[in-house]
Amino acid sequence: MKLFIDSGNIKEIEALVPLGIIDGITTNPSLLAKEPGDYKDNLKRICDIVNGPTSAEVVAKDYEGMLREGRDFAGLHEHIVVKVPLTREGIHACKTLSSEGIRVNVTLCFSPTQALIAAKVGATYISPFVGRLDDVATPGMELIRDIVEIYNNYEFKTEVLVASTRSPMHIVEAARLGADICTCPPAVIDQLFNHPLTTIGLEKFLKDWEKAQAVKA
Ligand code: G3P
């Protein structure tokens, strides 16, 4: 399963990418709005750092506006993936942009039928939001199970990009269900490295090593 960082913060991205576990980036208007500087320059910089798919979301709500913004984003950098919301206009824009060879990530997906229509118009990625479903007492991971099953039934090429992840358990469950990608805030990715037994074990190994060196000295 591929791992994306859900962030528009260049420092956070620069800290994680060299570790070799990151395959791409997702941003959204809320994330980009938090960062200083020109958002287009920031996006280009992020594409260079990660050297992989980087989602940039349109803010237009109408079809023509989405096409305009989407084509503009796609021209910024070869790694840009245009993100559109799962609305009628977004689905229409996905159809047109995809037919032009522009990769599209259809976002704000909360139901299997939404995922089905996104796949039918050639979305490169579908982004179901698991955390926001959990927030309203609806199991987010059941949506992932449904989408993976439907896409497998019809061999859709659209990749399932699990978004709105809040904890490592979302990552474990996404991987068990065969999702293609999980996008996670940096704080969640940081937690993937940690296990108390690793810390305790390493301390013991190093102490034993130092003791033996002291005896030999
Ligand atoms: O990028 C979209 C998504 O991951 C948002 O997450 O935590 O705001 O629901 P969250």
Q: What is the C-alpha radius of gyration, as a whole number of Å?
A: 20 Å
What percent of residues adopt helix (DSSP H or I)? 40-55%
Stretches where pLDDT is under 50 for at least 5 consecutive residues are: none
Task: Give the spatial strand order of the biggest sheet.
Answer: 1-2-3-4-5-6-7-8
Strand content: 15-25%
**Main sheet properties:** 8 strands, parallel, barrel
Q: What distance separates the N and C termini?
A: 48 Å
Average pLDDT number: 97
Can you write the helix and strand succession as a string?
Answer: EHEHHEHEHEHEHHEHEHH
Tally of DSSP helical segments: 11
The structure class reads alpha/beta
The outline comes out as globular
Tally the beta strands: 8
Bound molecules: SN-glycerol-3-phosphate
Jot down its keywords:
8-stranded parallel beta barrel, alpha/beta, single chain, about 220 residues, binds SN-glycerol-3-phosphate
